[in-house]
Design brief:
Length: 596
């Protein structure tokens, strides 16, 4: 029973009741229990097999295990004699448990992990040491630790001489950010590198150091990481090693410190004074379609470069000159070399050298301009080499962009501000739930083929699959939120938004009606989504509380990779704005696939 104020003086009482099992749940129970009032292990096994949960699972053992867990969760004492049985309410509670009946495959790595690194999308952070905005926030190892705990595999550090010029600080150059020591960051990386995934951690170093400090960096890196630091025997390997080969290892990626040597006379990159104010820093801003971003890039010059970020724009001749200044030991430790070949055009930058591999970095705006005329060249480049995309310089609030513009062109390192909470980062969190959340996701085969032709992201493609999503009901807010969190005067009016993020042809959002004055909303609405590139598609789920007079309240979200969805009725746990799972809030949903 809930009590709310009404007209300042009076009070209204609302009764809280659990919603009964949906009709579809009752039908499933009747079907697999043989029409009886209870279901045993055989019936549960038949249900699990009918949903295609896992073709390799031991049906009898799994059914017995689940039965025990369901009954234990309800704290029901099961007699020693006889086998435990489920009633319709028990079956409903099982279906509505995100622990026992999750929407994704079991959290284990199932992609082929023995291909070169260029065959994988890699969970990548941008300016990983920043706690907030790009201009004045503190630098710390805390955001690095949080990123590694979430499964991020690429950590970026900007190295600058400290105030005494005798040590190395990590900070966003030529801004008001407060520094943190390199040694502290390296020690934290070592401690937390493999808590979420055994696969390699890549440290991208933006290097603004003179040779004597580079030598200090080399000694520091060797001392901290020891035998887990991987570096190649040959200076320019023809192929990158695989994630499987590099399990438990740490790699360095950087380029010669051209910017430091050019800038040490005291020049400064001009500040970006908040041009990014209209970016999607708030959760309510929708992620722009990447077609829109491409059009925007055509009209806008990207002359406000990210403070402290470089563009890998040195050519071979310049690089050879720079090597004279590069500390020999430091140079030897670099596994993934960054840089552009000689020549200033996009086509030159995307040329593949059969004798070596490299990493190329482009801002989101540079990429948006490049894909207009060079889409297939970018895809071809990423088949052997690494492409890193980073946020444009006007994102001073640490907001993010639509990651699909990078992913659909094969870019492995789509770098995000992990403290830039909002819908764009939710997509990143959801994408890397795939493949056991190990931080490496195998790129679709069509992005790795060069015959009969290279994949062209601009071409319209036929529908491959239809995903049908039914949203039955939701629950858990009454446990995780205060009674008056959403409304001072009555229970909340929840509605759900469900949709697809992916290539432009697949992207859309739909929503249910709002259910008035109910902490346990029952919608029972079904939506259908046609998918042309299901391999990259993400299912977006959000819940909001309708407010007639103000902005609707946020009530939870999650993003799930479509390729990992298990068909059938599933419990979908929701997360807060920062991507942290609520304790109790979840939806009961059904997923069905149809091939076309």
């Amino acid at each position: 029973m809930g009590t709310y104020k009404c007209c300042l003086i009076f009070k209204r009482r609302y009764r809280w009741t659990d919603a009964p099992p949906p009709e579809d749940v009752r039908s499933l129970f009747a079907q697999h229990s043989g029409g009886t009032a209870t279901m045993g292990a055989d019936g549960l096994r038949r249900y699990l097999e009918s949903t295609g949960t896992d073709p390799d699972f031991d049906g009898d053992a799994e059914a017995e295990r689940l039965l025990d867990q369901i009954r234990q969760a309800q704290r029901v004492r099961v007699p020693r004699v006889g086998r435990p049985l489920l009633g319709i309410d028990d079956f409903h509670r099982f279906l509505f448990s995100d622990d026992l009946n999750p929407p994704l495959r079991r959290p284990q790595v199932h992609h082929h992990m023995a291909a070169p690194l260029s065959h994988y999308y890699i969970y990548t952070g941008h300016n990983s040491y920043l706690t907030g905005n790009q201009l004045s926030s503190d630098c710390s190892d805390v955001p690095i630790i949080k990123a590694l705990q979430r499964g991020v595999r690429v950590i970026e550090l900007d190295m600058w001489p400290n105030s005494n010029k005798d040590g190395i600080s990590i900070l966003h150059g030529r801004t008001l950010t407060t520094p943190v020591s390199l040694l502290k960051c390296l020690r934290s990386i070592k401690e937390y590198a493999f808590v979420a995934s055994p696969y390699p951690v890549i440290i991208t170093l933006e290097d603004h150091l003179p040779p004597d400090l580079q030598d200090k960096v080399a000694k520091m890196v060797l001392e901290v990481f020891g035998s887990i630091l991987y570096y190649p025997q040959e200076e320019h390997p023809k192929e990158l090693p695989s994630p499987e080969e590099l399990k438990g290892r740490v790699l360095l990626s950087t380029k010669p410190p051209k910017e430091y040597l050019e800038a040490k006379a005291g020049g400064a990159i001009k500040d970006t004074d908040g041009k990014g104010g209209d970016d999607d820093a708030a959760w309510g801003k929708e992620v722009p379609d990447f077609k829109t971003e491409i059009q925007s890039a055509k009209q806008e010059d990207d002359d406000s470069m990210q403070p402290g970020d470089d563009e890998d724009d040195d050519d071979d001749e310049e690089e050879q000159k720079m090597q004279q200044h590069l500390a020999p030991q430091y140079k030897h430790l670099i596994t993934i070399r960054a840089g552009k070949p000689k020549g200033g055009t996009t086509s030159d930058a995307l040329k593949c050298d059969p004798n070596k591999v490299r990493r190329l970095s482009l801002s989101e705006q540079e990429l948006a301009k490049a894909v207009v005329n060079h889409g297939t060249e970018i895809v071809r480049f990423t088949q052997r080499n690494l492409l890193r995309i980073y946020p444009k310089g006007t994102r001073v609030t640490s907001s993010n962009y639509n990651p699909f513009i990078g992913w659909v062109h094969g870019a492995q390192m789509v770098a995000f501000n992990m403290q830039g909470y909002g819908r764009a980062l939710w997509l990143m969190h959801g994408f890397y739930k795939a493949n056991g959340a190990c931080g490496y996701v195998k790129k679709p085969d069509f992005l790795m083929k060069s015959e009969p032709e290279v994949f062209d992201p601009k071409k319209t493609r036929p529908v491959k699959k239809i995903l049908k999503v039914k949203v039955y009901m939701g629950d858990g807010w009454r446990m995780d939120f205060k009674q008056t969190h959403f409304d001072q005067y009555s229970p909340p009016d929840f509605y759900a938004r469900v949709g697809i993020a992916g290539v432009p042809a697949d992207s859309m959002m739909k929503k249910t009606r709002a259910i008035e004055d109910n902490w346990v909303p029952v919608w029972g609405e079904e939506f259908s989504f046609e998918l042309t590139v299901p391999e990259l598609a993400l299912l977006r789920v959000e819940v909001h509380e309708y407010d007639m007079s103000e902005k609707d309240d946020f009530a939870g979200q999650t993003v799930l990779p479509v390729s990992e969805l298990q068909p059938g009725i599933r419990a979908v746990a929701l997360c807060d704005r920062k991507g942290n799972k609520y304790s109790n809030v979840k939806l009961l949903m059904r997923f069905e696939f149809e091939s076309v």
